Amino acid sequence: MDKIDLPPVGADDLPLSLLEMGCSGRFELITHPLPQNRPLPPHKTLPHGLPPTCLDLKTEVEKRFLRDPAWLPVHDVDDAFHKFLKISTRNKEVDSLLHCSLSPLHSGLSVVRDPTTGMLLDFTEVLLEDTGLSAKNSLSLQRQPGPPSESLRGSNTNYPFQPAGMEELTLEQIKKKSELEEDIDFEKDLLTVPPGLKAGMDFSDKEAISTKSEVNLLSLLSTFDDVIDALPEEKEGVSQKEETVKLPRTNSLEDLGIKDSGNSPSQPSANTVSLTEQKKKLQQEDKGDNKKWAVPVDISSPCDDFYKRIPNPAFKYPFELDVFQKQAILRLEAHDSVFVAAHTSAGKTVVAEYAIALSQKHMTRTIYTSPIKALSNQKFRDFKNTFGDVGLLTGDVQLSPEASCLIMTTEILRSMLYNGSEVIRDLEWVIFDEVHYINDAERGVVWEEVLIMLPEHVSIILLSATVPNAVEFSEWIGRIKKRPIYVISTVRRPVPLEHYLYTGNSTKTQKELFLLLDSTGNFLTKGYYTAVDTKKERTSKHAQSFGTKNVSQHNTTASQDRAVWQTLLNYLSQRQQTPVVAFTFSRTRCDENARSLTSLDLTSSTEKSEIYSFLQKSLTRLRGGDRQLPQILLMRDLLKRGIGVHHSGILPILKEIIEMLFSRGLVKVLFATETFAMGVNMPARTVVFDSIRKHDGTGFRNLLPGEYIQMAGRAGRRGLDATGTVIILCKAGVHDMGDLHAMMLGKPTVLQSQFRLTYTMILNLLRVEALRVTDMMRRSFSENHRDTQAHEKRISELRNTLSSLPPLDTEAQLSDLLSYYHTITELRITAETLQRAVLESVNGLKALSVGRVVIVNNCQHRNALGVILQVSNDAVNRTFTALIICEKGNEEVSGDDLSNKVLHPIYSTTLFIPEGPCSHTVQKLKLQDISAITAKSLKVIPERIIDNYNKRQQPRFRLDPPGQAISTATQELLRLAEANPNGIMTLDPVNDLHLKGVDVVEGVMRQRVLQDSLKDFHCIHSPTFTEQFARVQERMSVQEELDKLLFLVSDQSLTLLPEYHQRIKVLEALQYVDSTGAVQLKGRVACQISSHELLLTELLFENTLSPLAPEESAALLSCLIFTQNTQIDPHITNTLQEGINQVLNVAQRIGELQRDCGIAQTAEDFVAQFKFGLTEVVYCWARGMPFAEIATLTDVQEGTIVRCIQRLDEVLKEVRQAARIVGDSVLGSKMERASLAIRRDIVFTASLYTH
């Protein structure tokens, strides 16, 4: 084989090369053949020069998002590109920027008719007023309605309607400038750069380029000179004529605007015209000072002309009405507001029904509010059966909201008022049922807010149990609403009550029933003593002589209880005294008592079958598993025997079943707690009190008369029973007679204001400039004592007095007269406080013993020395009998000079030395008469001096010379005075009497400084000083009284004002409002939330709820609703535990902030409101666990769990609204899901009353 010659290898022939990889020092061998005649590629991957600092983000983003087909909307790149082109090459329409919504029409058409025939003659165009008003800028009813979606609940950006009695500004007030306003000079010093912009407008005069006009206008006008001159005279003539037409004086701008509505076709409806007439009438009545707004209506005489005055009533009743009902209906027909305080079962509902019928006749609307949801449901059923057109709005139910009568809880009405709901326009009546609920510490404030916020055209009907201060309460409402309120109260119950004590506990003693209070109201002590005796007989001889082992008055064992109930109920059913309501003040006691009565059967077989079929029908709405709940099975067994239990721990559906069976008379005995007596209209034949003590959240106490009457009032069914029976059990011993008497015959609880400031209220009022929180506080029932009218009258009197006083001469020497007056006044006040401190201290009183020399200053004596003879024992008004030296002839106190207030114009310590012969007097001195205690004491014989002096007061001994003891003492005093004419050594409060209080020490120092400063005044040397000083004093005393009254009338004297400022501080610190009081985004969110608004809003803004699953967030929020303490620790997930910790941290932070801002509640108390006992229960429920299993997770009763979850749903709705405002749609939909998760099965079974 031939050898092939290869050319010698050149430098660029070898296909090997090294490539440096990055900066790491790695190399790679490259073996591909190199291109011919080309320079070698760089043997590095790095570019030459410095390495780049980072990749270009722009190209990265383009590569990743714009060039990656998988990322584009649809993988079809072309399609996406076409879409892109379409967007990028759209036609620009500049005109669209100029488009704006249509402005409101400024005029309308109106018809001109022939006045005699009513024929149509013509149309004229009339200008409309108030076209720019909307719900976002005006409180007026003339504003345009908002969108239909907001018509029912309103929106939290709406203004409310103008509340009645909140005065619109008068013309004078509008003209008056506030401190912030300033006179703007429209020529000079104008601001040119708007805030936030760098440059502004240039207003400097620039020469305009003028073109020579062809025609000179002035030359044209000069030909008309004569015409122009003639015009003003005519005008003047006209204006003089016009001036004779006087405008009516009015307090509001709107009244002025009505002046031409008489003939203008844009006339308001007849209704509003009559309103303005009413207003005028009222204003005329107002002229009478101190008008009484509450008008008690006399119901003692029968109302004979009722049918004459109301020939065709809006609602006809099948029975003859009582006098009080007729009087109320007469008032309603006149469209007046009424307060009906009537006994239980007297028939207050008649008044409410008539109002609803009237509003249906007038085609207006009525709102009926009640404090309790169960009551709302019952009323819904009752009114629905009567009227048909009735709607219901509670937290979780909304049925036919367009109806003419709406039943709702007070909280919902409050939010409708704040949010300017359109329903308020058509509203004629608001009926407040169970007004005595205003005493509720937690929710009472809501009633007051609603009453204050109601507009003028709404009339108010208040229904309440008997309260002692109905007139005072109505006076308050009348005053804030500026309209009379007619107070109608019943004198007695339609069915009288008899009150008994029961001591029986076995078949032998079952008849031991003793009448204590008969139906006419006489308290029979005889009954009481026989009860005590029979109870005593039964205790063993040993116990009678040595006292019982069981000392406790209130505790009895379960078996003893059972015996008492068994005996009593057998006895009552024999006497046909059923149905019975047994009030027991503990839920467990209710359950135990009902369970223990195993052998008791009170129903006949027909009743049993009726109860069975009703139960079956009612429970069909529950799912299969829920029908087998232990509580339902237990209750089923009890109900068949005619026994029921009613308290907050019972499931709502069971409660309703029991109520319905009870009102049909199938439940013979109902063990209930106090809530059953609250308004639920279910009278019984007999009421039994298991005990007369209850626990009110803080401790045990006896029932209040109001509570007792409310519960006892359930006895006696009108038309069925002649009298109602009330029985008080004496299980351990007979109750104390004083307690019983106080409870049965005491005055019921007075209505008291529970008004307090809430953050929601403050924020809701702050977002509307026209309403101020101080106005709300001034109108609250708690400030009812402020008699502003009388104060205003006195203020004007004082102002007149001031202006009529002679002017002060403060020239030359008298220039420092006023400051002298102030110094001397301050010195007097300091001396008085020091004196009080000394005389109230132990050492001071020790020093003031018999024989002590004191300096006396009062209207009769000036710096006179006296010696103490006697000290009274009365610690409150302690008096000192003293011998005082005085001028001859000045022994008696002159009658007219008793005013202690007259200031001695010149301050001096010079002691009094009589000019003529020295005389003396013995007087009783008050503490304030002793201006100083000297260091000296005299030996005196007080009895002799006093006896001698008193003897010489009698006419026949008047001229006798004074006794030895007196003359010695007088001489001693005179000698002391002459020895120290410029003042005597007095005891110093700090050094001698050892008073070490800060205020005493400061007072002594201030006193010294003031005394020294008096030397420097010139006015004392003026010849007219005394006269001028008297003038200053007179003027100043008037001025002081005036200032005091002005303070009382001003907002500064409101009791809640300091707290208001503290709460504003808290809101500013959390940025809910800014420093000017404008509501920020956080504040807007908090307005949506009805309770615990700060905590919830903070949680929202801190994103606490975002990481949680829907069921976890629901569980976490349950702490805002649940209020009981639980014994069982819940087992919860870690995320939930973190959430709980976060909630507690936020709460702690808010609590501390409130504390720092001065609010009284401690941070610990604030945090302790939030209880996490139900978190596990709610978590499991939201995840779908059946109710039977949930109930075993906790010791909380079933009814409470259901109620809590129902209210939780309302909170979730509020959070959803809030999340929408913030724009957090993810959280919003999460809350929606949480809400759906808990709205199932037995918890959200519809009420039996509403279907």
From TrEMBL:
Q: Which UniProt keywords apply?
A: ATP-binding, Cytoplasm, Helicase, Hydrolase, Nucleotide-binding, RNA-binding
Q: Which residue intervals make up region (Disordered)?
A: 137-162, 234-289
- Where does this protein have coiled-coil stretches? none
Where composition is biased (Basic and acidic residues), the residues are 234-246, 277-289
Where is this gene product found?
Cytoplasm
CDD domains noted in UniProt: DEXHc_SKIV2L, SF2_C_Ski2
* SUPFAM superfamilies according to UniProt: P-loop containing nucleoside triphosphate hydrolases
- Compositional bias (Polar residues): 261-276
Q: Does the keyword Cytoplasm apply?
A: yes
Query: Pfam families given for it?
Result: DEAD, DSHCT, Helicase_C, MTR4_beta-barrel, Ski2_N
Where the record annotates domain Helicase C-terminal, the positions are 601-766
Domain Helicase ATP-binding, by residue range, is 329-485
Q: Which reaction does it catalyse?
A: ATP + H2O = ADP + phosphate + H(+)
Q: Does the keyword Zinc apply?
A: no
> Which InterPro entries does this one have?
Beta-barrel_MTR4, DEAD/DEAH_box_helicase_dom, Helicase_ATP-bd, Helicase_C-like, P-loop_NTPase, RNA-DNA_Helicase, SKI2-like, Ski2/MTR4_C
Name assigned to this protein: Helicase SKI2W
Q: Which organism is it from?
A: Cirrhinus molitorella (mud carp)
